[in-house]
Design brief:
α2 packs across α3 (50-80). It is built from 3 helices and no strands. By secondary structure, the chain is an all-alpha fold.
Length: 81
C-alpha cells in the first residue's frame, strides 16, 4: 500500500481532499516545487537561491542513498541468521 494524500482526512471533507490531491499532483509535476520543498525540509533558515536548492537536493539524494544501504544491510542480516 502506497502513501495517499487523503489518508487521515475525513469523508465529510471531500473538498479538502480534492484540493490536497491536486496540490500533491502539482508537486509531482514540478521540479522547482520539489526543490523548494527539499530546501524547506533540509535548510529551513536558508534563502531560495541556487546554492541552497542544490545543497537541499544533494542532502535529499544522500539521505535516500544511505537509507537504501541501511535497508539492504538489515535485509542481509535478517536472512543470514
Amino acid at each position: 500500500m502506497g502513501w495517499r494524500a487523503d489518508a487521515g482526512i475525513r469523508a465529510e471533507n471531500c473538498h479538502h481532499r480534492k484540493k490536497i490531491n491536486s496540490k500533491v499532483t502539482a508537486l509531482d509535476n514540478s521540479d522547482l516545487a520539489q526543490l523548494l520543498a527539499f530546501r524547506r525540509k533540509w535548510l529551513p533558515g536558508e534563502p531560495d537561491d541556487e546554492n541552497s536548492l542544490a545543497q537541499a537536493a544533494w542532502l535529499e539524494k544522500r539521505y535516500w542513498e544511505n537509507m537504501a544501504a541501511v535497508m539492504a544491510s538489515g535485509v542481509s542480516k535478517a536472512f543470514s541468521g
